[in-house]
Amino acid sequence: MKRPLGFTLLEVLVAMAIFSVIGLGAQQMLRTIIDTHEKTRDQIQGFSELSRAFVILGRDISQTVPRGIRDEYGEPLPPLILASGPYFIELTRTGWSNPIGLARSNLQRVAYELNDKGEIKRHFWLVLDRAEDSEPISQTVLTGVDDFRILMLTEDGESRDVWPDGESNSLLPVAAEMILQTSAFGELRKVFNFVDPIRGGRSRGDGENSNADGSSQQQENADLDDPDQTEQNSP
After folding, report:
1. How many helices (H) and strands (E) would you count in the chain?
2. Once rounded to an integer, what is the mean pLDDT over residues 73-100?
3. CATH numbers and ranges of domains, the chain
4. The whole model's pTM is what?
């Protein structure tokens, strides 16, 4: 008697079990690859945003010049204010790019704040000495920030968390240390040197720094990730 062709029920069940194990393993491997890709992409995007924020913050801080302004009420404000005003830090910087040659100074008043949403906001004004209707233009520099601090470093090596502090005779400190705390990267620190700490020089107020010997230097603004292309602050 001939044996019937085909598979027995046991053989079919064994084959199905083997294919199920292989399929489950392949699915888990594919899921792992997708998760790794998404995490890597998020890390790269976060690092890119962080690098851009450091470029913008560093450019503003390092190009600070000793040019005070008047606020919307006509009150004089020093060139650099840290932790003693409506914004966390406010300063006058040079190097404001002017590619189409508008009739304006290349000095710019800039301010930063950390809001309740964990966003670092950059504000700047179209004029130095403000009128009552002068409103800042704002942009979001970085999100996911837990803490944002800046310390001013003086010539004697001391750090100040408030500026002006009433103890230093200089309009500007030597350097600034920025401390960022983010959920993705932890605590990050970076030191920015000021371009030309005042040692007897005086700002001419026309976008050029006057040195002690009467020569002048005009700084150009890098166009990489230009923060001046921003949106009007929402009412």
Report:
1. 1, 15
2. 90
3. 53-232 (3.10.610.10)
4. 0.68
